[in-house]
Amino acid sequence: MAQKKLKRSISGLKRIRQSKKHNLVNTAVKSEIKTLVKKLNSAITTGVKEDIHSSLLKATRALSKASSSGVLHKNTSSRKISRISKSAHKVLSS
Question: Which of 27, 78, 82, 88 lies 20 to 30 A from 13 at CA?
Answer without folding.
Answer: 27
